[in-house]
Amino acid sequence: MSILFAEKDQTFTLHTKNTTYQMKVDQYGFLLHLYYGRRTGGCMDYLLSYLDRGFSGNPYDAGLDRTYSMDVLPQELPCQGTGDYRSPSVIIKNPDGSYGCDFRYKSYQILDGKYSLPGLPAVYAAEGEAQTLKICMEDRITKVRITLLYGVLPEQDIITRSAVIENEGDGKICLKKAQAACLDWLHGEFDLLSFYGRHAMERNVQRTSVSHGAQVIGSRRGASSHQYNPMMILAEKETTEDAGSCYAMSFVYSGNFKGEVEKDQFNQTRALLGLSDELFSYPLAPGERFCIPEVILTYSSRGLSRLSQNLHRCIRTHICRGKYKDSVRPVLLNSWEASYFDITGESVYQLARQSAELGIDMLVMDDGWFGRRDDDNSGLGDWYVNENKLGESLGSLIQRINGLGVKFGIWIEPESINEDSELYREHPDWVLAVPGRSPIRARNQLVLDFSRPDVVDYIFERICGILDQGNIEYVKWDMNRSLSDCYSRDKEDQGRVQHDYMLGLYDFLERLIQRYPNILLEGCSGGGGRFDAGMLYYSPQIWCSDNTDALDRVHIQYGTSFGYPISAVGSHVSAVPNHQTGRLTPLRTRGIAAMAGTFGYELDPGKLLEVEREQIREQLSTYRRHAKLIQAGLYYRLTDPSTHVAGAWEFLSDDASEALVNVVMQEIHGNMPVTYIRLKGLRSGCMYQEMHSGKTYASDALMEEGLPLPDQSGEYRAYQMYFTVTDVME
Ligand code: GLA
Question: Which label site among 43, 313, 441, 506 has the fewest CB atoms less than 10 Å from its CB?
Answer without folding.
Answer: 441
